[in-house]
Amino acid sequence: MSTGPARKQTISERAMARAQSSGAGKNPDGSAPYLDDLNEEQRAAVVATEGPVLMLAGAGTGKTRALTTRLAHLLFTGRAQAWQILAVTFTNKAAREMRDRIAALVGPSVEGMQWLGTFHSIAAQILRRHAELAGLKSSFTILDADDQARLAKQVIEAANIDSKRWTGRGLAMIIDGWKNRGLTPDKVPANEAYFFADGKAIGLYKAYQARMTTLNAADFGDLLVHNLTIFQNHADVLAEYQNRFRYMLVDEYQDTNVAQYLWLRLLAQKHKNICCVGDDDQSIYGWRGAEVENILRFEKDFPGAKVIRLERNYRSTPAILGAASGLIAANTARLGKELWTAREDGEKVKIRGVWDGEEEARLIGDDIEAEQSKGRSLSEMAVLVRASFLMRAFEERFNMLGLAYRVVGGPRFYEREETRDALAYLRLIRSPDNDLAFERIVNKPKRGLGEKALQTLHKIARSQNISLMVASRQALESDDLHAAARRSLVNFLDTVERWARDAKDMAPADLAELVLEEAGYIEMLKNSKSPQAPGKLDNLKELIQAVSEFDTLEGYLDHVALVAERNENQTGGCAWLMTLHAAKGLEFPIVFLPGWEEEIFPSKRSLDEKGNAALEEERRLAYVGITRAEESVRISFAANRQIYGRWQAAIPSRFIDELPEKHVDVMSEPGLYGNTMGDLASHSRFDGEKLKDDAYYDNPGWRRARAAGARRASTPVQIEGSARAVSVSAPGRSKYKTGQRVFHQKFGYGVISLIEGQKLTVEFEHSGAKKVIDTFVEAA
DNA sequence: TCCGAGCCACTTTTT
DNA sequence: GTGGCTCGGA
Fold it and tell me: Where is the UvrD-like helicase C-terminal domain (predicted)?
């Protein structure tokens, strides 16, 4: 966190330092000193210890501070021992931050908080204690998304279903969806499976779970679902935990899914001291099973709940908050909050229209350099995009400029191929029954044990219900394998067994090194011509480094399964580049928000899939983006963008229209949307020269857009076809005819083949058929 | 068993 | 435009 983008601690460091030095002492008036620097609402959230509490904490309102102080308060006042408090977060990072900040308040007694962690790590902890109640051994392995998909694929193939049409990843997603809702195979409503593999999904789910039991494995979803099953079937176990957790605290409650919600509700039944913290306006993980509903109906679920709103924002200027509030006000499904700040008015939110994505990257690059020359550090600036494919233009441009930047997100260390291979070796050594690990590395590097040999082994294994390792030994006794394969296999098995013996009296890091070397894995990479090979070798070195921090192999493997951390090499002085999702919880003085175009943001695909609910989630994502900024927000949109190698015309995002005019400042290049527009369009908000600010909002196009906006507010589902300032042409009849020859600035000449309202399908002479908005072309 | 050409599909991704 | 996956020939 210290070199990370977030600098939240600055606000409260003073208070923390004071609290730490004074411990649980008292002010002269008898109040606790650690409460002094909290504002009234924060203090209320800290001292309301009994009964259910919902803390609605807007962006930048000092949530973590209130939350950690609350935990410290419970300890200071002796209401609970450290081990009687359950505190759950979603990310390891959040858990770590919370632990550190509580430690700053209470000192070493934080060590006793063994139930502070992520949903998954705590559920795993509980499951290990009662694994046999879920049909597992307590040494079960935790599978990640990749393993899940692989396993799902095997299940599909075993059922003789075409695994190209119905992919393992697809099935894994469906199963995940069910697990997110706490549904075991017997509880899935029958009508929910019809769309996958002719309705066989439930059967496949059953088979998948059977496989999991055989493998003694649990995926992420299982951790929670098994917990639920155990709690529901074993009242004594549930009672044990209900009694233990006198106080519960949940961070980012708006992101909980149904399974997590059920889990919390079961555990809270006894003492009912549950404090959920969240912000309905920042719920952006609906597509992963998060239910905003959980936070919206908290007061119903927990009768008598106190609701405390943190609305004083310490992060952003009034202009930024005003823009963000105005935007989010268009959502209907919200509890309602109004952020305010005591800060001085700052610059307005800048909106800029540009010709295409490359120009956008160029201008943002220029802006960043300009700010840098004014004395800003690069690390104070961030570019936040809707989707990772939008990052490329920026990376290219920044590389060209030699501008130091850092991408947050992307492939994570433990998801990389080479790391996963190395881990598979280690897992196989620890548990020879781990078929997934066996399969992964038996022929990596190449040992002449390919598909054919593996099939043979699988057949033996399945017929006798034994692991691949055991099946391999048997295969050696028979003639099922070629002599060459047999030789190779003997060698492999013996080596693995020797490693297992070595493992007993070797430091895990040394073992890892030995294994990678002897397996020929290092050599394979050294001989590889692939440009990625040196990087992979570096990653393996890093892995060995990571292993060396553990005393036992078991300890390390367990850590890895649940802590899939990003490989963040800490280098200061970089501009930040990340997705909006990755930016949640962070803050930066200057934030660039490119790509605000219809179909990209809001994402067409989301809207197609989930309609208005998705639109609201996209809007929350926009809200998250804007509220990351402390001083300056710069939104941009491009009239053209290359997506997957094809040029696409785009119109500005509806979210731009939704920003309150008094907080924004529009700069746009002349002629962006062509010069053939009708009367209404010729003075669009995004066309023409820079006028005086006020004039921007006093023209026919803008007035019309406002009227449309007002209508839109009353009819929430209006995804296409609304008349807005930016969709320049008059709706309805097009002035073009099918068969007419037209010219487009980017695509050149072509002939219109289809007209749908203002959308034309044009067969371009050089770029093929494309859909364009009619104002982008002119008669040729 | 291995390798390259051709084909498709492609958001967001805390654990 | 790119990577991941499959199929056909060496």
Answer: 318-585
Nucleotide nearest A389 (Cα, C1'): B11
The answer to whether A739 CB is within 7 Å of strand C is: no
Sequence-ordered list of residues with C-beta below 8 angstroms from that of A538, at least 6 positions apart, any chain: none
Query: pLDDT by residue (tens digit) across A509-520?
Result: 899 999 999 888
Give the separation between CA A162 and CA A164, rounded to whole angstroms.
5
- How distant is C1' of C1 from CA of A388, in Å? 14
Number of other residues whose CB lies within 10 A of the CB of residue A265: 13
Alpha helices (H) in A570-653, listed in sequence order: 580-583, 604-627
**Can you give the pLDDT at residue A402?**
87
Annotated catalytic residue within A147, A222, A251, A598: A251
**In DSSP terms, which residues pair with A643 in a beta bridge?**
A646
Q: Which of strand C's nucleotides are less than 7 A from any protein C-beta?
A: 1-2, 6-7
> Catalytic annotation on A495?
no
CB A645 within 7 Å, strand C = yes
Q: Which nucleotide is nearest to A448 (CA to C1')?
A: B1
Distances (CA, A) of A472 to A150, A158, A216, A229, A480: 21, 20, 20, 36, 10
What pLDDT score does A644 carry?
A: 82
pLDDT of residue A771: 62
- Tell me the C-alpha to C-alpha distance, in Å, between residue A158 and each of A162, A163, A215, A764: 10, 10, 16, 47
Q: A386, A619, A628, A712: which is the annotated catalytic residue?
A: A628
Nearest alpha carbon to residue A133 among A68, A57, A45, A229: A229
- Residue A179 or A146, more confident: A179
> Which residue, among A511, A513, A518, has the nearest Cα to A445 in the 3D structure?
A518
- Residue A63 bears catalytic tag: yes
Lowest mean per-residue pLDDT among A25-34, A47-56, A282-291, A532-541: A25-34
pLDDT of residue A457: 85
Q: Is A526 exposed, middle or buried (0-12, 13-18, 19+ CB in 10 A)?
A: exposed
Mean pLDDT, rounded, for A443-447: 84
pLDDT classification of A184: cutoffs 50, 70, 90: very high
pLDDT reported for residue A699: 37
In the structure encoding, which two tokens stand for residue A507, read together? 């430091």
Q: Which of residues 409-438 of A touch strand B (CB under 7 A)?
A: 409, 412
Number of Cβ within 10 Å of residue A359's Cβ equals: 18
Task: Give the span between the Cα atoms of A68 and A105, in whole angstroms.
Answer: 8
Contact residues for A640 (Cβ-Cβ < 8 A; gap 6+): A355, A356, A357, A647, A648, A649, A650, A746
Catalytic option among A42, A64, A154, A419: A64
Q: Would you say the C-beta of A603 is within 7 Å of strand B? A: yes
